[in-house]
Amino acid sequence: MFGVVFPNRSFPMDISSFTQIDTFHWVLDMNTFVGEAYDQIREMCIFLLNNFTLPPDKALAVYVQSPGSPFVFCGAVTLQRPSAVLSLIWPEPGGQMLLTAPDASAPLSAKIGVSVEDLAALPSLDVAAEKKIERLALKVGENLFNFMQSFCGVDGSKLVVPMDILDRWFKKFQEKAKRDPEYLKGFAL
Prior knowledge:
Blueprint: E1 2-5, E2 13-14, E3 19-22, E4 25-29, H1 30-34, E5 43-48, E6 58-65, E7 72-77, E8 83-87, E9 98-99, E10 105-106, E11 111-118, H2 127-149, E12 153-155, E13 158-160, H3 165-179, H4 182-185
Antiparallel strand pairs: 1-2, 1-5, 3-4, 4-11, 5-8, 6-7, 6-11, 9-10, 12-13
């Protein structure tokens, strides 16, 4: 049905590496894979296998769960997008030890969950990419605001800026990007 690869960490793994919960849900226990270093796994490539046909209105959704936390959606693959490299944004661990027997306790483990879901019900196919774009936009906006602040005057409770401030900022922004290719990389996180 599907396979996964953890870039620079694993060989391709098929569905047999996952525990099947029911017809549409699978879980990979990260303790058996990497022990407690689950948070070092930051990317996962998931792909549909050639002989598997997912209905066009369905997706294979990927979730991560830190010990004691709820599952968090990371992204999905579909027939139109049969593979993807997803950033794994692990939530903060929470909770206590899980009691498995009256006198025994075992630590909760981190997990990766995969499930077949309605495509229309999913928020996005790549959550991390959207967050990166949002952070980039905020950093560029902050750069513009700081530039404008250095040229503005105050009129009561209003900032007054020259009419050509956007043109001046954009030219300066472009010149810095041409001079220093690393300049734009500083905006991406």
